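User: Teach me something about this protein's shape.
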Amino acid sequence: MHPATKSAAALLATIAALVAGMDALAKLYLALLIFVLLDWLTAMMACHHTKEALESSKLARTGEKVVGHSIGVGVLWLISALLFSTANPNTSGFAQALIPSAYLGYALLKEAWSIFENLDRCGVKLPPFIKKRLKTAIHDFGEDKHP
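Assistant: First, the predicted structure itself:
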């Protein structure tokens, strides 16, 4: 077996072991971090494809998103833990994680949408229903960033 294949297999096994021990909220947060990274990578690809200048502000905005999402999840978890534990001390962890999980789901959808926009800028053929919705969203919000 090739050494790179062994290294990749070891890395994937380590990640799988770490993820297996995480609770659902941590898995959602990890997925959000991956989506933020994919959004940044596709934005860089779109800049290259459209010949836009690569700016350090794009990387800074990615860092701001990670910090902002981390703070948002932490604050929402704390608020929901306080609300649910004072209302009923026997509340399960599921109830306490419900509000932060909803926020993470919303943030994941926003990041996925941004990835679709970046892929569209790169010239990737998207399914017609996504393409139509992208044009509607751009028109509704007045963001004519895409030709």
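Now, about its shape. The two ends are 47 Å apart (CA to CA). Residues 23-141 form one domain. If you'd like, I can walk through any region in more detail.
User: That's plenty for now, thanks!
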